[in-house]
Amino acid sequence: MPRITPFRPAAACTLALSLALVFAAGASAKGFKVELRVVGSGGRVLAEKPVATATTSVKTSPKATCFGAGTGGSGKPVTIKGNTAMGLLASASQSVAALSPLLISDHFDFGIALCGIGSEVAKGKASWYLKVDHKSPSVGGDSAVIHPGDEVLWDLAPSYPYPGELVLSAPDTARAGVPFTVRVFSYDEKGRSKPAAGVKVAGASGPTGADGRATVTLSKPAQLVARKAGEIPSAREPVCIGGKCPK
Question: What is the distance, to the nearest Å, from the Cα of residue 39 to the centroid of all Cα atoms in its chain?
Answer without folding.
Answer: 9
